[in-house]
From TrEMBL, chain A:
Compartments where located: Cytoplasm
Catalytic activity: tRNA(Phe) + L-phenylalanine + ATP = L-phenylalanyl-tRNA(Phe) + AMP + diphosphate + H(+)
Gene that specifies this protein: pheS
Pfam family of the protein (one): Phe_tRNA-synt_N
Superkingdom classification of source: Bacteria
Protein residues bound to Mg(2+): E255
Name of the protein: Phenylalanine--tRNA ligase alpha subunit
Family from the record: Belongs to the class-II aminoacyl-tRNA synthetase family. Phe-tRNA synthetase alpha subunit type 1 subfamily.
Cofactor note: Binds 2 magnesium ions per tetramer.
Species for this entry: Candidatus Nealsonbacteria bacterium CG02_land_8_20_14_3_00_34_20
Length: 340, 766
């Protein structure tokens, strides 16, 4: 047997094979129990030792060659077969997927975290305060003395009083005082929290809602600083460039006081339903901390000054997710909550 | 409050910016103009005057003053050239008595005779209408007009209807002022000149507190019962007006009125405010008095009103103003630190500009180069800034070199050396600006007039230190995230609950109550998060089969002072107790709490009477002896009330206690390189035997070569004898340092079986 010609012949045969069964036949012919190579191996037993080694080696090489070639060809057939199958198989990708049940955090939690994250990155500490307050912390300490028109408006109309004494805080500003009492300036804090107002509820008013208060106190913290900090915050939060407008306002606990409007991010100031066709959105109240408030917090207003601001967490959340009714937040409705 | 554009314009010679433009200027520098609307030939501006400026800006004059400052126009002086009748002296006609000067700091009055009551001229009617007031008659309209113009409420009484007193010493009066002591004709009470022989009467007005149960009928025919907290204007017999609030029917101006008493007074704002709330009677007048009017305003307003009455209603004004003003309100002075303006606003406004702004707003500059001696002023502000940072501090900001070296301090900013002298101005505050008390108030005036909008944002210079982590918030976030991973959705509920929950859950003395709830469903502070979470379940079951929700929030427990406590509570529908227990195990594990155990729930006596929990299917979750919370099935009796037709499992953690056990410490446990082997054991035990007991026996026999034991089957029923339960466990054996041999494992397994069967009632099934 001429090994070289056998090799060439097998190569041709493998190339010509049209199916796996053709290959199977080739395998049987050469490598099977009664195959050609097997017979050749039997033959070499009779040869001299030297020859035995030489031919044995060659036969082995041929065997390895054959196995490899057949395997290669077989893989080729299988590949073709599979790609044929792939092409022919019918499959409907529009059938619905199998759902898995995730948990969901409340949208107010998500937005609170986001806001806190931005302020923390600017060195503001996140602080909490009690929900039941005294008149001192909720009003007097914040420069809203008894019989003051602001006190009258907030206290009589809108404050929930407890039969056993105390009240439900109407703003998170009380936490400013608690914090100033316990910490030395410079101060940088934000205070998220639940607040309460005795109001008739509608799509934009709730009796239980959330605020975020901010306070920065230092030797020379200014209104210009407030503008820069709040602008940075808004840009981070809304992830776009923001135009703000600062106009005068009145809060007993700040002097000067500002109202901050933001150019509507929905219509870029052209006017839309989100901004009630004014192009601007009233976003938050702010101002320079009133000296009396600093004093009531135990700081000397001759040495310290700063800004404070307060905004409605509910409102920012409603803006972010385009939620049109504040009452959804406390509805406990999973059809709402599972969207976040 | 609404303002007439034409009226505002009437204060100026120069043309004001057009209404829209003016509105924009006012919004950006004064207060928000909420609406601008054309009405006939006039425009109406609805300005949201905030309470701080109620004292001067509930008036066209006040807003005109703002326009003066903001549009660089000059206010005209309003006409009030009064011609007084020489033959009549006011003080002879009327006697005013203020019982308590704190109640009424000032009372001014005039008497006007020969009035022709009739409709007002058209222009006046129009102005009133545009501002939302209905014209009544010329006298009343002029009083209202003056209120809209100056902010000072005035009231006109029919002089003839006021009761007076007969002077005790007619002789003296005759000598003093013969014109004043006149008889009142019974036929014609309005006539001053009916000098019939007999009784002389002088009218008397008393400003006093009402008597208890004293009654008054007001102009609108409503009856009010008053008390000692309410100030009234009275004659010798009855109240003729609720002071600063509403006039009485008794001395109403009518068509026949010929003589009027015109009142322009100042009342204690707190008392007016209280009375108006108490009587639930809010009027244009009371609203203004509540906002602290300037007592110096009364005179100007009454004179101008008298002038107009004279002009329009043909009146004769008696000579002299009756003015009871025991303690004059004087102008305050405030010293203003120019450096502080810059420091607080963060912008440099030139001194010239500052002075212009203040003057245009009506402030008087007493000294523009004021030397401050009092060390209480903020003269050394700059120094303090720098000293705070240490004695060798040197900061460079652009070109500004700031130096601080102990007591030899010298500050240089550019070329300017800052010293106390020269950087102060002394300002006199006009009394109509009672809201200005401090230099910060003046800085606001400067800032807003200059334009807050013009202040350029500057990032603060602050220490670059990371914010301190708030541990409470960190663990709140951490636990919320774990529950979310476990498939829970977070809800926020009201902190209030109502009578229904009180009844169903049997809350009693732990319940704190609101004094002023908005509804009976929101009347109490929640002592537990469970009730409303169950309501959430009931509502969501309409749309969902499986429910897993939680809330992390405060509950309130009444004791001497009501305490608030943060709780973490979850409820699950379509979930078994054991599934929930598994969730809690993993949850606590993730929080770094490992040594937890579940104790039998023993309701306290109070709880036992009206339990939330199923008495058998509830466990106390404990770490050591510390009780963190409860896990259990909600009592079916409660579910029945809430119309929930399936089992609900709940967990209820005292979050503060839970947080104390939480730990972030976490150490990697090397994965054993040696294979684990699993053997099963099934044991038949009496029905009352707890799995825990079986586990304990397996573990104590197996020692540390047991890596884990899993209960994989639990059976009670037909296949096992009555009263027995079959428990089957996978026991996983693994050593850290070698591959366990079959012999070794068999030996331990035998030991375990022996240990289990030590109890004669337990039988290991082979």
């Amino acid at each position: 047997m001429n090994l070289k010609s056998t090799k060439n012949q097998t190569k041709k045969e493998i190339e010509k094979a049209k199916s796996l069964s053709d290959l199977d036949n080739i395998f049987k012919k050469y490598l099977g129990k009664k195959g050609l190579l097997r017979t050749e191996f039997l033959k070499i037993k009779k040869l001299s030792k030297k020859e035995k080694i030489r031919i044995g080696k060659e036969l082995n090489t041929l065997r390895v060659f054959l196995q490899k070639e057949i395997a290669k060809k077989a893989k080729e057939f299988r590949r073709k077969e599979l790609s044929k199958q792939e092409k022919e198989e019918e499959f409907d990708i529009t059938l619905p997927g199998k759902k898995i049940e995730f948990g969901h955090l409340h949208p107010l939690t998500l937005v609170q975290r986001e806001i806190a994250g931005i302020f923390q990155s600017m060195g503001f500490e996140v602080v909490e305060g009690p929900e039941i307050e005294t008149e001192w912390y909720n009003f007097d300490a914040l420069n809203i003395p008894e019989d003051h028109p602001a006190r009258v408006a907030l206290s009589l109309g809108k404050t929930f009083y407890l039969k056993g004494g105390g009240l439900m805080r109407t703003h998170t500003s009380c936490a400013q005082i608690h914090y100033m009492e316990k910490n030395n300036p410079p101060l940088r804090i934000i205070v998220p929290g639940k607040v309460f107002r005795a109001e008739a509820t509608d799509a934009s008013h709730e009796t239980n809602f959330y605020q975020i208060e901010g306070l920065m106190v230092g030797r020379d913290v200014s209104a210009a600083n407030f503008k820069a900090v709040i602008q940075k915050f808004l840009e981070e939060f809304f992830k776009t460039s923001i135009k703000i407008k600062l106009r005068p306002s009145y809060f007993p606990f700040t002097e000067p006081s500002f109202e901050l409007d933001m150019k509507c991010t929905v219509c870029a100031g052209k006017g839309c339903s989100a901004c009630k066709y004014s192009g601007w959105i009233e976003l938050l109240g702010a101002g320079m901390v009133h000296p009396n408030v600093l004093k009531n917090g135990g700081l000397n207003p001759k040495n310290w000054q700063g800004f404070a601001f307060g905004m409605s967490l509910d409102r920012l959340t409603m803006m972010k997710y385009k939620i049109n009714d504040i009452r959804l937040f406390h509805s406990g409705d999973l059809r709402f909550l599972k969207q976040f | 409050m609404v303002f007439s554009y034409n009226w505002l314009q009437s204060f100026f010679k120069k043309k004001l910016p057009n209404p829209k433009k003016l509105a924009e200027i006012l919004t950006m520098h004064f207060m928000e103009v909420e609406e601008v609307e054309k009405e006939g030939k006039d425009w109406v501006l609805d300005i949201d005057i905030l309470p701080s400026r109620g004292g001067d800006c509930f008036s066209h004059l006040g807003v005109a003053r703002e326009c003066q400052a903001l549009t660089n126009s000059k206010l005209k002086i309003q006409d009030s050239k009064l011609v007084e009748a020489q033959e009549l002296k006011t003080k002879d006609l009327i006697k005013i008595e203020i019982k308590n000067k704190e109640d009424c700091p000032r009372y001014t009055a005039r008497v006007i005779t020969d009035i022709r009551v009739g409709p007002s001229p058209k222009w006046l009617q129009q102005r009133l209408k545009i501002c939302g007031l209905q014209p009544i008659n010329n006298v009343v309209d002029i009083a209202n007009y003056m209120m809209l113009e100056t902010g000072q409420p005035l009231h006109a009484f029919d002089f003839g209807k006021i009761e007076g007193e007969i002077p005790n010493f007619p002789g003296r009066q005759k000598a003093d002022s013969p014109e004043g002591c006149f008889p009142i004709s019974k036929k014609n009470p309005n006539s001053l000149l009916g000098r019939q022989a007999g009784k002389f009467q002088i009218k008397k007005i008393i400003i006093r507190r009402a008597k208890k149960e004293e009654k008054i009928t007001t102009l609108d025919e409503k009856k009010y019962t008053l008390d000692e907290k309410i100030i009234v204007i009275a004659d010798t017999k009855d109240p003729v007006a609720i002071a600063g609030t509403k006039g009485g029917k008794k001395a109403e101006i009518d068509r026949n009125t010929k003589i009027i008493l015109l009142e322009s007074a100042n009342f204690n704002s707190h008392l007016i405010s209280r009375a108006s709330r108490q009587l639930n009677l809010k009027t244009d007048a009371s609203w203004r008095f509540e906002h602290n009017l300037d007592p110096n305003l009364t005179e100007m307003a009454i004179n101008r009103a008298a002038y107009l009455i004279q002009k329009i209603a043909n009146g004769k004004v008696a000579r002299g103003l009756v003015d009871i003003y025991p303690k004059k309100t004087l102008a305050k002075r405030v010293s203003l630190d120019l450096n502080y303006i810059k420091s607080l606003l963060g912008v440099e406004v030139s001194k010239k500009q500052i002075l212009t702004i203040l003057k245009s707003l009506g402030f008087k500059i007493l000294d523009s180069n004021f030397k401050v001696q009092n060390s209480n002023f903020r003269a050394e502000r700059g120094n303090k800034v720098l000293r705070a940072a240490g004695s060798n501090f040197r900061a460079e900001r652009g070109n500004k070199v700031l130096r601080a070296a102990g007591s030899n301090f010298r500050a240089e900013r550019g070329n300017k050396v800052l010293r106390a002298a020269g950087s102060y101005i002394l300002v006199e505050i006009p009394t109509f600006r009672q809201d200005i008390l401090l230099q910060e108030d003046l800085i606001e005036e400067i800032g807003r007039t200059y334009g807050f909008q013009k202040i350029k944002p500057i990032l603060p210079l602050a220490f670059l230190i990371p914010s301190k982590r708030n541990e409470d918030i960190f663990w709140q976030d951490f636990t919320k995230d774990i529950l979310k991973e476990a498939g829970f959705s977070e809800v926020y509920n009201y902190s209030f609950l109502g009578e229904k929950e009180k009844r169903i859950f049997g809350f009693k003395k732990e319940l704190e109550e609101l004094k002023n709830p908005v509804s009976i469903e929101l009347e109490y502070l929640r002592p537990s998060l469970i009730p409303i979470l169950l309501r959430n379940v009931a509502e969501n079951l309409k749309y969902f089969k499986e429910i897993k929700i939680f809330e992390l929030g405060k509950v309130f427990l009444k004791s001497k002072i009501t305490k608030e406590k943060r709780m973490l509570t979850g409820v699950m529908a379509a979930c078994s107790f054991y599934e929930a227990k598994g969730i809690i195990d993993s949850f606590l594990n993730k929080l770094g709490i490992s040594n937890i155990w579940y104790d039998e729930y023993e309701p306290s006596y109070e709880e036992g009477k009206w339990p939330i929990w199923h008495p058998k299917k509830c466990a106390e979750i404990k770490v050591g002896l510390n009780e963190l919370g409860f896990l259990g099935e909600i009592s079916p009796r409660i579910l029945l009330e809430l119309k929930i037709l399936q089992k609900v499992i709940a967990f209820d953690f005292d979050f503060e206690k839970l947080q104390k056990e939480c730990s972030e410490e976490h150490e990697y446990q090397p994965i054993s390189r040696y294979p684990a082997a699993v053997r099963d054991v099934a044991v038949l035990v009496p029905g009352f035997t707890k799995v825990e007991e079986v586990l304990n026996r397996i573990n104590s026999a197996g020692g540390k070569l047991i890596r884990d034991v899993d209960l994989f089957d639990f059976y009670e029923g037909k296949e096992v004898p009555q009263g027995k339960r079959n428990l089957a466990f996978h026991i996983i054996f693994q050593a850290e340092d070698r591959t366990l041999t079959t012999r070794e494992i068999d030996e331990i397994q035998q030991k375990i079986i022996k240990n289990l069967e030590e109890d004669p009632e337990w039988k290991v099934r082979r």
